[in-house]
Design brief:
single chain, Arc Repressor Mutant, subunit A, two-stranded antiparallel ribbon, 5 strands
Amino acid sequence: MEEGLQEDSHYLTFEETRVLGSLVEKAIVTPENYPLSLNALATACNQKTSRHPQTDLSEEEVEEALDSLRFKGFVMRVDLASSRIPRYQHKLSESLILNKGETALLVVLMLRGPQTVGELRSRVERMHAFADLQDVEETLATLAQRENPLTNTLPPAPGQKETRHFHLLTDPPEVEERTEVVYVPAPDRKVSQVEDISQEVAEMREEIDALRSEVREISDAFRAFKRQFE
């Protein structure tokens, strides 16, 4: 039986934040591969796209974070009848009572750090389609105005006008600011589309690697099971 949400369980370590965020993202973006095995989840945590900062968490570190998240009521272990490999699924939305838009925004903040409303609108599209920037702003306001706020804002970065939003499930971010103002030209739409496609291809490759690892795990488990009858 899974434990209920514990006292002070809203606070997460960095490792717990990355593990939980990755688990929720994959549940939404690739539901056909969900729940995730430990190996697949470690791959998701360490992927090179859609993550800041990038990490190299070991399976032992991911498993330790999972144990803590299970105690706090954010994750549960799932044992499927068709597989001897344990898998994991999140309970973030139920634990914090979040709708789909709130969940998507919180996950992007967990995986990518502080962001402006415009950045969030662009990066959350694969998980939830907001109507416009105002829709994103209103959802962020709802998260910030809770009895136990889940988001807050940072001042604009040097040379920028927009405030940045961050989540409050862990310690506030330490942001290194650059003092000089750098001119950044408006992005070319075609270049942006190419970058989006490149990112999707990179994510697909990582998903394929994760699937290959899972197939190897299943194959090893089957051979071990078969040896029992030899």
